[in-house]
Amino acid sequence: MTTTFESQRAALADVVAIPVTPFAEDGSVDPGTYRALLRRLLDGGITTLTPNGNTGEFYALTPDERRLVTELTVEEAGGRSVILVGVGHDVPTAVDSARHARELGAQMVMVHQPVHPYVSQSGWVDYHRAIAEAVPELGVVPYIRNAQLTGARLAELADACPNVIGVKYAVPDASKFAAFARDAGLERFVWVAGLAEPYAPSYFSAGATGFTSGLVNVAPSVSLNMIEALRSGDYPTAMKVWEQIRRFEELRAANGSANNVTVVKEALASLGLCRREVRPPSRPLPENERAEVAAIAAGWAV
User: Fold this and answer.
1) Closest listed residue to residue 139, CA positions, set 29, 7, 17, 252
2) What digits encode the pLDDT tens for the residues 86-102?
3) What is residue 283's predicted lDDT score, i.e. its pLDDT?
4) Contact criterion met (CB below 8 Å) for 29 and 21
5) CA dihedral defined by 251, 239, 21, 260, rounded to 10 degrees?
6) Residues 151, 126: contact at Cβ < 8 Å?
7) pLDDT tens-digit readout, 257-266
8) Please, which residues bridge with residue 166 across strands?
9) Contact at 8 Å (CB) between 19 and 11?
10) What mean pLDDT do residues 156-165 have?
């Protein structure tokens, strides 16, 4: 059997939404609010969802919570979206999560960047290969944040695992991305700008065809406006969107992205869509900074 992964590849060449994981007053995952946030994304025109991404506080969720989030996403999407499930941690845990995603009917998994302090390039290949080989029916998307990794290593992985079809590239260097993509095979993979809208124009100019987004939780139309402009090669319009979101994304990126998720949840809270609480090592936004986020969110056509 030969799998071409055409629908999965098309889904990556789009706005790849990373839903937040809302928490109830008692600190548990709030299924009802999560479903409502997903419906808002789907009704807003989003067709690719990544449950258990970093904006979803992947590393702060328990294994059971990650399973729950995957199940809720597949159920709520009901075929309206391609599902790209975030998996990671140790190899057995990642494989178990990937197989769970497959059983539920998800089409792809995104393999989170290994957080082990000692990552060799050959070990990176081995790690991803073990996961990809466990779910050959699923498209596999490595999440690359390691600036030392070479494109040749990605090509080596794909030689062994043809289901490695896309890359979420999140090294903040457009020149390095351009070289990495060409060393790995520009046409071989779908290249997703993994640093979201702020980097999307520069990464698209170098070969990306999709971008991830946490901002999309707040304003789906803004993210869609940017990708429509980028697809048509209309960089002046794309940069107008960039200017519109600049301050919001600066707040998320400040202090080593300490408030990356916090700012998104604060914006949603200001709109009455979910609670603002995040889990350590993130922290809620101080009260004196909340008004600026609320003003930005209110100014968008949401």
Assistant:
1) 7
2) 999 999 999 999 999 99
3) 95
4) yes
5) -20
6) no
7) 999 999 999 9
8) 190
9) no
10) 98
Buried b (16+ CB within 10 A) or exposed e, 81-120: bbbbbbbbbebeebbbbbbbbbeeebbbbbbbbbeeeeee
Strand 139-144 to strand 108-111: parallel, antiparallel, or no bridges (unpaired)?
A: parallel
The residue length of the chain stands at 302
Phi, psi of 143 (to 5 degrees): -100, 110
The upper half-sphere exposure of residue 97, i.e. CA atoms within 13 Å in the direction of its Cβ, equals: 31
Tokens (6 digits) for 87: 């998996």
At 192-227, the pLDDT tens digits run 999 999 999 999 999 999 999 999 999 999 999 999
Token pair recorded at residue 129: 């290969």
Q: Give residue 1's pLDDT.
A: 42
pTM for this prediction? 0.96
Where residue 2 falls among pLDDT bands split at 50, 70, 90?
low
